[in-house]
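Justification of computing resources. Each target in the renewal requires a structure prediction run like the one illustrated here; the chain below, 134 residues long, is used simply to show the kind of job we budget for.
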Amino acid sequence: MSATATTFGRGAKTDSQETKPGESPEPADAQSERGTTNGQTRRRPERVFRVGNCWGTVWCNEHKQKSGPNEQTTRIIRSVNLERRFWNEKLKDGKGDWDSTSSFGLGDVHNLIAVAELVADYLRQAEADVTRDA
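Resulting structure tokens:
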């Protein structure tokens, strides 16, 4: 299977641009940290992968242990979102905009598998880089 993949990292340029059908949409997850939501700064994903119209987003959360033998230790917990993006004519008062869903059609399965493999490879490497203090 030959699929072209696009990845977006933390240092990726994320200038907001208007996109139309046929162009590559900028993922909402990869937009820069502009503004706040409920007084909290928007988080950016650790990594974003794309194959066709299927996207895989890796999120990274830090959790500080408050008690126990590893008190004051910070753990990194990663999570993944898989989604399919599509142009929705009904959004923005009929002008259309990019939308996403976690539902995939038969034609999306190969792209979904490719994205999942890219995400799994990245997570394997990211988790292997963790060092422990002895």
